[in-house]
Amino acid sequence: MAIAKAERLMNLALCLLGTRRPLSKRELRASIEAYLEAGSDDSFNRMFERDKDDLRELGLVIETVENLDGEVGYMARRDSNRLPPITLDAEEAAALGLAAKVWQQARLAGAASGALQKLRAAGLPEGVDPYEAHGALEPRIPVHEAAFEPLMLACRDRRPVVFDYRKASAAHPEPRHVEPWALECWRGHWYLAGFDRDRGAERVFRLSRITGRVRSRGTGFTAPVPDVVTVRETVASWAGEIADGTALIRLRSGAGYPLRAKAGKVRELGDGWDELEIPYGHGLDAWLVEFGPDVVVLEPAELRADVVDRLRAVAKG
Hints:
By secondary structure, the chain is of the alpha+beta class. It has helices at residues 2-18, 25-31, 33-36, 41-57, 90-102, 106-123, 148-157, 228-238, 257-262, 284-289, 301-316, and strands at residues 23-24, 63-66, 72-75, 161-165, 174-186, 189-196, 201-206, 210-216, 243-252, 265-270, 273-281, 295-299. The strands form three sheets. It has a five-stranded antiparallel β-sheet with strand order 7-6-5-4-8. It has a four-stranded antiparallel β-sheet with strand order 10-11-9-12. Strand 6 and strand 7 (201-206) form a beta hairpin. It is elongated.
């Protein structure tokens, strides 16, 4: 359905941009196959008005002209829909080059490279190489999960998805029906924030725990999509970035440097162990499990119990 609508909008835009005189609804209907297939005049009129509004929302300037006979026509003049010249200074070009180098996915890298080539042809400053390295450190956003690309497209197109998800505390994956909102990267791991239809609430899923194939569902969203800030705060909270308390743990000496970086206090216990006070928020148990036998939770009791449950689930396979 989305492809059919996009094709219809493209055909309408081409007709309006290609004509030298205003075209009436009757002429547009006769020129576009999708409009010919409309069951009735009312159906066509509703479809045309929606398409016209969508094109205007996308930025196409459509003029409405009434001829001497009182018939209304439509056209989109090329001079009114021509983008202004693209001007970039050296710093802006360098920023674009840096953004293009961040992605390592083949398809994303190709799109970024093509965009930069078009910008170069459109007037990048002479002597500026957007691919030139501007420091010893080079940013990377690694994406190894097969679920990333289908979920990225589903977020873009607002399409619900179904996938099998294995919680850290569960031995086997279970299906999840999700309306995807956004993908976020925290501590080198990708998370999907969205509305879980089965639980009737927002949830966050770690992509590395998605098993099998991500399947799309044609039905639309049933829950409102929050703004970007709310989604990012949700991801941060579920990923353990927002703390509302303090946890006390034992950490093996020479291990767990990310935990040491967040510690408020560190005390040497001897015998190869240290005691740390670290921020405690939702998701900390999942993070601590990753350090395996190098971490022992002392308090609070509920965090210790959560970590033990997760370790038992992992041991069961």
